Known about the structure:
The chain is α/β, with parallel strands linked by helices. It has one domain (30-309): Alpha-Beta Barrel (TIM Barrel), CATH 3.20.20. The chain has 11 helices and 9 strands. The chain has an 8-stranded parallel beta barrel with strand order 1-2-3-4-5-7-8-9, surrounded by 6 helices. Helix 3 (72-83) links the parallel strand 1 and strand 2 (90-93). Helix 2 crosses helix 4 (95-103) and helix 9 packs parallel to helix 11.
Amino acid sequence: MVQRMTRITDHRWQGLLETRATAPEVVAEAYNRRKRPASLLSPSGRLFLVAADHAARGSLATGGDPLAMADRRSLLERLVTALEHPAVDGVLASPDVIEELLLLGALEGKVVIGSMNRGGLDGASWTMDDRFTGYDPVAIDESGLDGGKMLLRIDDDDPHTAGTLEACARAVTELASRRLIAMIEPLPYGTDDTGRRSIKMDPASLARAVTIASALGTTSAYTWLKLPACGEPDVVLGATTLPCVVLGGVPGDDRAAQLATWARTLRHPAARGLAVGRTVLYPGDGDVAAAVDEAAAVLQAAVAAEMEGK
Length: 310
């Protein structure tokens, strides 16, 4: 199989490193110079984002490699490859990644959603303390981004959840006052038999998380939700009128089954698109372009099914 990947040449990579070291003011210039998209949604009324904020929380493992996302040049090459696909509308990432993509010229005309809270480090004893350590609403506005994304992990047995709820509500209000999208990722958590915290994927828990996230802030006018693909989307997505993007999760052994779950969730009327990270950036066969092709085809099929039903 031919693996299609846009490589960052040595010259281009050295230029990026030189800019980082000697001309930090160029980052602000790149933010100001970026051509913004005319609309958040594509002409089909959908949004396809590539997510790359995992490393900011110290979550680096994928595909059996514990340091896969620690190789920044490789990560950026994968992101550039994905962003060159005509179906990909933009990126969701932490400030460092967004700025590197800006310096590489990869975000012209793209939707850019800044990741806001990355404090709950993967594997840390305080992992549920999802405090805000990235973009804030002022920076998102001044940087010309299209919105901010926040993680809301809800664990009834962990007191850190209360602080995250309050912080997310404040961010929703402040983004809405600037007419910027607040994209909340509400994930219900519990403790399994081994004592490890994990996402609760049953419909009742997911629907409850949706209703909690939908009510945050002084207005929900600019709120979007980022939700897992699930087995019963009528229950989960049926708990809100807010636009939802389906998150892709981690690469699985059965990619066909994973794509089928995306397809089922995307057919719900509240679903407005995909926000996929490692599944397309680190596919098992290494072919990023082909993985993006597959995800785009699933999203397009959902659009076609909706048009047929009208």
